[in-house]
Each structure stands twice: as structure tokens, then as C-alpha cells.
Amino acid sequence: MRILCVPIAVLLACASLPQLAVAQWWNPQAQWQKPGEPAPNIVYTGAHIELASVAIQNALQSADFKKLERMHEEFLALEQSGGNGRHLLSAFERAFQSSFPRQDAQVLKKVFSDWNAALPQSGLRRAAEAWMWHTLAWKARGGGFASEVSPEAFKLFRSHLERAARGLQESQAPGKASPLWYSAAIAVAGSLGEIPAVLDGMFDEGAKRFPRHLPIYSARLNYLLPQWGGDYARVDDFIRAAVRRTQGTEGTVFYKTLYARVHESYHGSAFFRETKASWRLMKHAFLDELAQAPSDDTLNAFAAMACIAQDRETTAQVLAELGTRANLGAGMQDVSTEVCQEFAKGGR
């Protein structure tokens, strides 16, 4: 794979890439045009996904099910169009995984009972409900080793997961119209300990129908990690296959994005030595993403990974581009802005 040697400053000048003008009716921070003016061009970033996630959580809390359905419909259309905004739909999984663990079980069950009464044919509800039962299962089990979990907790864990699996099975017709059904199905089946062939079948079907929906890839990737009995060779094979599947529309971006998921679960100080991740390919992927959608989030992640890879030149270059906007290491234990700035100067 050929490495693109494009200066960061040139990439950032690519802000004139095609942008999609869409009224962000769900976004309280949206800038509205004045009467007679054209709709503003919107460059969707990670910040928009986070705003959408908050909007989804608020809609769940206020039982505004029509808003949830409309957001899902519009975000799915953006994803299928393949342009700017194509990753907004992932805000739903982010909202579920952020909100459900904090909610009381009875409150959650009441939300889904009301949703079912209001919109009984909703496929989105079935996928969301599966995520709810998946969350309750893991809350009952806890995060400790299996030897530390009581028989009662294990019984409840499995009961909740089986409830989620039944709901997904019963809702295949409406549910499979959304990629959220597939990411939930993989997460539930993996937690139930289904064999790899079952998970692969779910993933292959989902990725074929919705090749741009990153959470489907992340859900399957999770059960290839060493923590789940996998290994980094299988992780690398999966990520490279994901890049081949999506390269026509995403470039090589999935390489860095999926390996970022691997890094989130990694515990150690030698990521590029102990896994099969290639810094050469990851750097290429970061440059691909910056060419498509320049953002400070991507630059900060780029600088952090360059620092972890001990690429002093790239670390210094990206930090210089960021200047005072540098904010490295969010969610990472082995990197920080200060450490990487010192490394870029030759301090370690």
C-alpha cells in the first residue's frame, strides 16, 4: 500500500471537500440561516456525533419516540448516501451504551413498554431494547472474573441476554432494516458465548448490507481480542479485511479507527510491538481521514498515536499544526499532551 506524503497544512486546506447541507432540527447548537439565505454547509465531526448522542438520550428520557424514529431515519439516509454525515447513525449505539448503565432497570423497562405501545412496529425499538437487556445483563454479572461471579448473578446475566436474543429473533423483518439490529445481535450473541461461525455470519450479513456502519465492525472485533479468547493475529486479519471491504468509500480510514478500538482495550506500554498494528498503515489512514474531513479531533488522535509509535518527526509536525489546540491522550493511559510535547523536542 503506497503511503501518501502530503503535508498537514495542505490537507487542512481541503476543507472545500463536498459538504452536505441538512437542517439539524435535532441540534440545539445548530446555526440557522436567515430567511432567503441558502442553508449552511455542515461539516459533520465527532462533536456532532456527541451532540446527536445527547439528543437521543434526552429523547429517551422524555419518551419522545417520534423524534428518535425521525433521527434514525434521517441518519440512516445520510449513512447510505455515503457522504458527509455518514457516521451520525453511530450516535445511537453511543447513546445506548452511555445512558443505559446509569438508568434504573424499572425505569428502562417502562420506557420500552411505552415505546412499544406508541410504535409497536418499530424496528429501532427492538434493537434499542436488545441493547437495554444486554446492559442489564452485564450490570447483573459485574466486570470481574468468572470465578468471582455468584451463581445467582450468572443466572440473571444469561436470562437477560436470552431475553435480548429472543427479541432480536422475533423482530428480524423490521429490525434488519437498520444496522443497529446487527451490532446489537453480535454483542448479545458474543456475550452468550456463541461460536465464531455464528458471529461471523451475523457480521457478514450486516456488513454486506451496511458496509459503512462502524459499530457492526467494532462489535465483531471485540470478540476477536485476547480478552475473549482471540489473538492479535486474528484482529489484524479482520481489520485488514474491513479496510478492503470499505476502501472504495472510506479509503483506509477503518484501519486507524478499528485499531483505535483495539488500543482502548490494550493494557501495556508497547502497543505497536505487542499487537500486529502497523504504524506505517495507520499513518496512511490518518492522512486519508484528514484529506476527507480535517478536524482537531483527528489531528489530536494522530499526534497521540505518532507519539505512541515513537515517530518523533510526525509527532512534532502535528503538534506544531495544533498549537494551543493540542489535547492528546483523551481516554488513554499511556500518553498525554505534555509527554508527547517533550518527546517531540527530543526529551525521551
Briefly, what is this?
The chain is mainly alpha-helical and 348 residues long.
* Number of E-state strands: 0
Secondary-structure content class: mainly alpha
Any idea what the shape is?
Answer: globular
**What is the CA-atom radius of gyration, in angstroms?**
21 Å
Largest sheet: none
Helix content: 55-70%
Q: Give unreliable regions as ranges.
A: 1-22
Question: What count of helical segments does DSSP give?
Answer: 18
Strand composition percent:
under 5%
First-to-last CA distance: 31 Å
Quote the average pLDDT.
89
Order of helices and strands: HHHHHHHHHHHHHHHHHH
Oligomer: single chain
Protein described:
There is one protein chain. With 348 residues, this protein is mostly helical. Helix content is 64%, strand content 0%. The chain is built from 18 helices and no strands. The longest helix has 20 residues, at 151-170. The protein is globular and about 60 Å long. The two termini are 31 Å apart. 42% of the residues are buried.
List keywords for this structure.
348 residues; mainly alpha; 0% strand
Topology:
Layout: H1 8-12, H2 46-61, H3 65-81, H4 90-99, H5 105-118, H6 123-141, H7 151-170, H8 172-175, H9 179-191, H10 196-209, H11 214-222, H12 232-250, H13 253-265, H14 271-274, H15 279-292, H16 296-308, H17 312-322, H18 337-344
